[in-house]
Design brief:
The chain is an all-beta fold. It has 2 helices and 35 strands.
Length: 417
Amino acid sequence: MKKAILFISLSIGVSGLTAVDSLNVRLISTIEIPGNPRGFQLVDTFLYVVLEDSGVVIYDIVDPYDPIRITKFNTLGKEISLCVRDNYAYLATLNNPSSPRNRVDVIDITDIYSPLEIGYLDTNYIGSCDPIFANESYLFCVSNLSDFHGFKIFDLSSAPSISFVSQYSTGDVLLYDLAFQDNHVLLANRSEGLRIVSIETPSSPIQIGYYDYAPVDTWGVYVVENYAYMCDGEAGLKIVNISIPSAPILTGQYSLDGFSLKSSVIGNYLYLCNFENGFKIMDISDPTSPSIVGYYSGVTAVDVEIRSDYAFVFSSSDEMIYVFDISYFTGSVDIDSDPKPAQISLTIQPNPFNSAVSISALEGAEVEIFDIKGRNIATLEGGTRVWKPEASVGSGIYLVRATVGEQEITKRVVYLK
């Protein structure tokens, strides 16, 4: 059971000028992203970050307290959006005449440590692609070029080959986000609000419902069961009942200072990016009366994804991803408990490594190295030792465990052969 006492903190930012106010969330780590990041996606235990000028960087987030960069793959053009589905990553580049890569690249990520480009879709044919989405069968490329606003649909059933299916135009209205529900696509149309398009017949998408509201400045849409959660710029959050797709109705709303951009919903809570006003958490158990129950003010929040007890929030002002413990809302542990009790020390440098790694533990400790299946690969004595994997040891994630008496500590190391 959650404690009745709320966890409230006030701390001073690095500059010494910015106060960080928080309620019921704890910042546990940050990931500094070099290279002008455009966005990110979480898939299983991996974090994919799109870099506008230099490809995609991938992090292992098995331990959210200690994210590890494991690889990076480069393309030529200006990357703007990425979507991962099964064993493939679809990477959209900006439709820029000065770029030699005006297309969607198809990257095989079966071996996450050695991504391989295996194909592409010419975006001179499809127009701009920002952002890019996928459901179980199709790729949806959003275009906001002057000559076409809307999305285009591509068949992924023969992936990595991609074939054009159809397109849907939003007229002169910018399309900023979309979400899926059954055979419907819900659109966040910038100046028109919510549009619901049937893709039951993908070759002939057709609008079947809409909800206009004022003021309207729609940037994000997230769908769970019978509700669409609309981030409406300076107007805050709007909750629309879509149980009858042809006749959606407004159920609830919440006015927010600042600018509402994107959201994610898990259980009875909505996690919202409020731009310069930070990261907000709202109780939506009663959709007619949402309320703020948590926040963190020290980020310029533009995108968020949730995994288990953690929220990953992209902050545009400092180009970092902030990782928050949200277990107060998931109910796993009390927010004011210490999730990382003091343990014996273990240092691994460099990490990742490609030939040898220095492992430092207390003198007298036993240091064991295991693969992810739990098989012992090597055993070292305490102190500072160098591990040089044998030729039979392949690239991957390995666990290093140091033990002294009844105390032990385990950390991950990434070997890039």
